[in-house]
């Protein structure tokens, strides 16, 4: 699936895949059906969700087996109002779910991520990035839930946004912790390039527009969970 890299800048690797484009499941690009993971695979599971979204869109990921690695790659944009939900449930002992979520909002976007731990030794790590265009509205919320009798969970949900000065953004991260985790982190920030970064690019001969493009590309591609 080299075109995933060419068109969406998503690096693929040997894995079982579930691919969605413009909110629609693509069986011809997938090796598994849907995102209910009820059997152990020898390879990791790579869930890819790309394209344009509008209206209500939802991605459900349920991990019901032990010792399974799951990676989620989301790269979407909306030119019309959109409400995007991602629900992750990890019930597999020693199973890990890691997600890179990139959203480009050019209208009105509401996004909710719910990450639920329902077993011992489960991991859910999700990094959410937003590019907010001119005069846009974005409301981003996340809830990490560590259920009772879910010991040693590792939970981390982070938000970062790069926004036009006219954009309006609201972050509402939350946690509900009913068992003692190994770690439970939340973060939210607005990305602003430093003066040395801008100066370096200008000294390299880039125009103002080219500097903005380079900084935007660096922000969008700076994911490190996998």
Explained architecture:
By secondary structure, this protein is mainly beta. Helices cover 13% and strands 50% of the residues. It has helices at residues 2-8, 195-203, 208-221; strands spanning 16-21, 24-25, 36-37, 45-52, 55-63, 69-78, 82-90, 96-105, 108-117, 123-132, 137-146, 154-163, 168-177, 183-190. The strands form 2 sheets. The chain has an 8-stranded mixed β-sheet with strand order 2-1-4-6-8-10-12-14, covered by helices on one side. A hairpin with a 2-residue loop joins strand 1 and strand 2. The longest helix is centred in the last third of the chain and has 14 residues, at 208-221. The mean pLDDT is 93. It comes from Candidatus Enterousia avistercoris. InterPro entries: SUF_FeS_clus_asmbl_SufBD_sf (IPR037284). This is SufD family Fe-S cluster assembly protein.
